[in-house]
Structures are given as C-alpha cells and as structure tokens.
Amino acid sequence: MDSERVVTYQFPSRILLVRMAASLVGAHFLVSFGEQYHIFELLLDPEYYTSLAGSFLIAFILLSIVHYINGKLDANYDWLENLYRRSLLQFLFGLVIPSIIAYLLAAVYFGIHGIFILDTVYLQYDFPVVVILLGLVNLLYIMHYMYQRSKTSGRLETVEKSDFLVHKAGKNILLPIGSIAYFFHHEGDNYVRTLEGEQFLVAQSLDQVQSLLPAKKFFRANRQVIVNRHACEYFEPIENGKLQLIVQPGYADRIIISQKRAKGFREWAEG
Q1: CA 228 to chain centre
Q2: N or C, where is the chain less crowded by C-beta within 10 Å?
C-alpha cells in the first residue's frame, strides 16, 4: 500500500554479544566455584575447558530463554498496570521454569559423561547459585524495562509520532498514525486495525502504545482498546453511567467505557 513503508528489522547483535559474554562469565564462575586451584592452574587443565564449554552452552540457552520470556511479558503485561499478574508470571516463567530447565540440562550434561546427577553435589552447591544468578538476570531485565519506560514517557511530552511500527507476514511496516482506527488486545497479543480495515500485529503493550500516541487523537476506552477519534461512529449511555462506543471498522466485542472513564471520554470527544 502507498501509505505504508516497509522497513527491515536489524537483529540486535549487541544484545546477543552481551548474552554470550555473560554466559561465558557465568560458566567460568560455576566451573571454578569451590575449586582450590588458582585461575592460571585452571587454564592449564584440559578438563576445565570441557566443563567450561558445557556450562557455557547451558548458560547461553538459559539466558536466551529468559530474554525471550521477558520480551513476551513486556509486550503483553505492563508492570505498572498489571503488577500482581506480571509479578506472578515473571516468577513462574522468568525464574521457576528456567531453573527447572537448568536442572534438566545439567542432568543431560552429567548423563553424557556417565554420571547420575543425584550422585553429585550439583543440587547442594551449583543449583542454588544458578537460581540466584537467574534471579539477578530477571532483576536486570526489570530495571531495563523501567528505565526504557520512563525514558519513553519523558520523550512523549515533546515528541509526537507520525508513524507506528507494526508487523505482518514477517514484515516490519511503518504505519502512519492518521491511518490507524484503533489498537486492541486479543488472546495475549496486541493488534492495530486501520481505517481501511487492515490488521497488523503490535509488539508493545497497550500501555506503551498509549504513551506513544497523541492524546488529542487517541483515547484509552478500556484495558483492551485504544481508539482514534476518526474511528468513533457514535456512543450511547448504558447502565450504571457507562458508555458503549461504536467504531468503524467494526470491533468484534462491545467497547464499554466505564463510569470512571466516561467523563474523560465525553470531554475528549468534545475537544
């Protein structure tokens, strides 16, 4: 389409290098943990490199899993809006499941060398260290998310976006803000629908999307929908001071504006 510009996404190789470096440092720490040898003595031991290679592979797999999980959680569960749910999901998918995977990978590693993991001191010494390191990695991701969110929010007061990055069929597309009808959340993902009725995937959470949009043109109708003024066909009052909004192109569910948001929406609609 003429109004869209396709851009090629460049893989963040810097993040990959950071994960590789962190994996190498973590692998060395685990291999040398509790050893009485000096670092130079370890470097001269061929078995050190065998253990280092296996630990590096396990560490890199774990960091990649945590990186992927945090990306998915950041896109769908904002820390400020969904604190309790995000905390639970972060603990479960960011710490518990990677810890279990770490144990299973270690069991495979020992098994390859003909050793039963329960016959080692892995659970007593190495595994607690792995869990602590995974917790620290999750903490770093949370701090990075908060930093990026605050930086984006601060920029918004002076900068108004003219395009929005969306995705479809493996392509990254710069979609003009004026062509967007509304953003919505559906079954764990976020989407944008244009005034022409086309639909694209959005990587950010709706909170992040809202912070990037001009407030005069877009309104957060509820937790699932952000609407453009030009997509609003009409609205009508319903029970308990709520409003029902009708948009074009049509939306699959009813768009209900709560009593708490109703006054702000009326003022926005009249503005």
Answers
A1: 25
A2: C
Structure tokens of 12? 């963040």
> What's the pLDDT tens digit per position in 169-179?
878 888 898 89
Q: What end-to-end distance do the CA atoms of the chain give, in Å?
A: 32
For residues 37 and 147, membership in a common domain is answered with: yes
Task: Write the CATH number for 186.
Answer: 2.40.50.1020
Distance between CA atoms of residues 51 and 46, nearest Å:
9
Check: CB of residue 182 under 8 Å from CB of residue 226.
Answer: yes
Does residue 6 surpass a pLDDT of 70? no
Q: Are 109 and 58 in contact (CB under 8 A)?
A: yes
- Same domain for 143 and 25: yes
98 membership: H or E segment, kind and range? helix 97-112
> Which of 137, 156, 175 is the endpoint of a domain?
156
Q: Give residue 9's pLDDT.
A: 35
Q: Which residues contact 170 (CB under 8 A, 6 or more apart)?
A: none
- Domain containing residue 143: 12-156
Residue 4 included in any domain: no
Query: What's the angle, vertex CA 207, arms to CA 76 and CA 244, rounded to 5?
Result: 100
Q: Is the peptide bond before 12 cis (omega within 30 degrees of 0)?
A: no
E strand or H helix that includes residue 86: helix 83-89
* Same-domain status, 179 and 152: no
Is residue 5 in a domain? no
**By the 8 A CB rule, do 207 and 220 touch?**
no
